[in-house]
Amino acid sequence: MQLGAHAPLGVQRGAERVRAAGEDLLTESGGEDALTLRAVARRAGVSTPSVYLHFADREALLEAVCLRVWDEFGRMFRENLSGDPFLALGRCGRAYARFALDHPVQYRVLMMRPSTAQGVPPAAAECFRHMVNAVAACVAARVLEGDPEELALGLWSAVHGCVSLLIAQPSFPWPEDREALIDHIVRIAGVGTALLSRLPDALPPSGVLAAELDDFGARLSADMTGPRGAELRGVRRPS
Known about the structure:
Blueprint: H1 9-29, H2 37-44, H3 48-51, H4 58-67, H5 70-79, H6 85-102, H7 104-111, H8 122-140, H9 148-168, H10 178-196, H11 206-225, H12 227-232
Helix pairs in contact: 1-2, 1-4, 4-7, 5-6, 5-8, 6-7, 6-8, 6-9, 6-10, 8-9, 9-10
């Protein structure tokens, strides 16, 4: 039982007080095990039974506490959506990864374990919605081709897989420059998706594919370093 916007103001404030206490415990401990109903009630200054007035059980409370940071997630996506759609998609992917790594406990609870509730969990639904919006802009610009939802699933899976490994396997010898790793994964996912949407179902042998990709890369590099590249980047040529 989680109370909605139509609950009496006093009840809403009580629920928010409990959520805030839970978030404090989560942040201080760095893990979800510290968030028990008794501990949250003690921190909020209420009795343990009164917590059940706002939340059906510990799982409902835990999810509500973790969702407190999800407004920040939406804000980060919206702030990165302006400008060129493909570059914006890359910025959104990097912002997604930074958000997950800045809030590892919340991300692990909401995105890395099975949900106990029926239907699509709110956090996952919001992640997917933001990703689809960013991808749809790329499809409209024709830098990506295909169904926006299908493309978004692939891109989301790539970024989620990266941050999930970083969160779940902290002792693995990851590169010291974590931002560079994230950028690498985002670029692989984005450029790979753009290329894949234009490739035939039956791919040529490796040697032929390598030669074609070399030619494509050389042409693109020449375009971006020459006068046309300055125009594409919005740089004025000297008069």
